[in-house]
Amino acid sequence: MCHTTLQGKDTDSEVLLAALELSAKDWKVAMGARGRTRQVTVPAGDLLALFQAFDTAKARFGLDPSAAVVSCYEAGRDGFWIHRELEKGGVTNLVVDAASIEVDRRQRRAKTDRLDAGRLLAQLQRFHGGERKALHTVAVPSVADEDARRPLRELERLRKERTAHGNRMRSLFTLHGYRLKVGVHVPEQVSELGERLPAHLRTEVLREYERWQMVNTQMKALEAELRAELAQAGEPAILLIRQLMKLCGIGDASARLFVREFFAWRRFDNRRQLAAAVGLTGTPYASGTMEREQGISKAGNRRIRAILIEIAWGWLRFQPDSPLSLWFQERFAGSPRLRRIGIVAVARRLLIDLWRYLKDGVIPAGVKFKAGVLPDGVQVKTAVAAAA
Asked: Which CATH number fits domain 2-140: 1.10.10, 3.40.1350, 3.30.1380, 3.30.420?
């Protein structure tokens, strides 16, 4: 009786909800409508089988063949191609932030793909029913915007790989009490030491050097491509990069990362959304008589957050007379601990200023531009004037 009453109040009964639990071998698909649920397994990547599963579920649940389908899956290694194909097939899909998926807090909890798909479906049902905090979705870039981020991410990975090769060569030399200066002259240094280095160690260092040299060559080629791209005209993202580079304290690498990872394709309605997307929002803990601040959430784009902290330190150096730098010196210059806390506050305020600078042409108050540079295409108004 109670079940029938709840079904009668179900306003979304004519929509098929589906949650996908993805893996390399197969996909678990949990579907629900009209108070009933069903799970099937389809081969990984087989979209035809997935759409057939949707049609079969509609027939099982008594839905019209043309009924809408709302699906979701967890953001991960599969990226966004599934989302794009589902959207092409007329399915409304959500890419879910993995951190927003609820988990059982028991010390030993059962975990299988089938159980995870069922839990995700339950959260999708709550989200579709109007509980917007039941799931947090991920912004999906276009294919072009996603591809434009690849060179920067590849360069980041190559830098780490080159550092690893260099550290390995230094460690091998240290084993025998020698200090190696990593660079193009490594073979000469090995040759000079000669028999003082064991034979196998010499050959290992030289092989490691070949890998270091290959990565270094790839890095130089990639950096040259990025510089050539910056010289091109017409693309809106390039114009935004150039605009950021006009500010003292922001170089081409920082500006490129900001625009490609963030400002080129993300849209924000207010500063709170902006800070949340970078993970610079506070996370208070208040329960009963206990009340404390746990620090920033770190739930957003880690690359933007990391480069933003670097730019914040550079801002204090290259923009010392700006109100933001003066505020930091007045409030946080007392101790190293306070400086580490204060630089996060500077980073958040600076992010908002840069967003307004690129979006509305609001020049941050007291900012200095690089010598001989004018803010092309930016309205000549300061943050103080805009606030007034």
From this structure: 3.30.420
